[in-house]
Specification:
The protein is an alpha/beta fold. It is built from 11 helices and 17 strands. Bound molecules: zinc ion.
Amino acid sequence: MRALLIERHGGAEVLAAVERPLPEPGPGEVRVRVTHVGLNHLDVWVRKGVPGHHFPLPMVPGSDIVGVREDTGEAVAVVPFVSCGVCDACVSGRHDLCRAYRIRGEGMDGGCQEAVVVPEASLLPLGALDPAEAASMPLALLTAWHMLVTRAKVQVGDTVLVQAGASGVGSFAIQIARLFGARVVATASTDEKRALCRALGAEEAWSYEEAPRALWGWSGKRGVDIVVEHVGAATWEASVRAAKWGGTVVTCGATSGHQVSLDLRGLFFKQLSLLGSTMGSMGEMRAAWAAVQRGQLRPVLDRVLPMSALGEAHALLENRAVSGKVVVAQDLRR
Ligand SMILES: [Zn+2]
């Protein structure tokens, strides 16, 4: 079968099509013929490399995988992580705390190939979902669910600020906060992205420049209960300031830089909670997926490109030229 491989870190030229043996399922595993793979900003980090972080290259990229089970012919999505299954964290259902936790396409091979072999327990039913739309969801959906539901414990009546609300994580964060009865506002860089935030349920959507003043007015000079932060250095100080007394800032990313400063007086006087969050557990994945299948959360798909044009798809993400997700469709065997 054919696979796309990141052989070394670099530009789009490091993506190479190679021939590999078709993988054989072992006990408890099934082979899935890949039809679609959803991209995340993570794909760009893996290709370019991150100083001080080791990726096991050469590696097949692509975390969000949709395809057809070979044994039953059923359309399925694949949970975007694996964990050891036997440690204290795993048997307590906290797979996200497993020290052997790996994301597909980041710590192990991903989906940009003709077929993958995965544990049967990692399959999510597609039901009536469109396969390209389904491929746009799992990683961002799980990340946003874990941040708001498990870490920040969003409740009815909470006020929530979602930074970068038109991103993959942001667009689900807006919807999940609304689903749990919160009032939501968001930031985004363009008119088009702000319109998307409002369409997803944000009461207001502001530019990063106008947000601090606008939020102060909107919240009655109090700040918000929960800030969903994943932009990093560029928004960190504004995010901490936006949290009200006793409020929570939950972060899962640092796209614009990972070194920030913190005034400890603000932290203790305001009694803030600063929470880190990464991915989530199998139980959370299934709960979030069930909400999608009930029509309570919807995907935001910008476009579908052929898998052979993966470099072009990466460029769209790097240039922030998309509003919503990019998915690649299988065309490696022609
Ligand atoms: Zn484990």
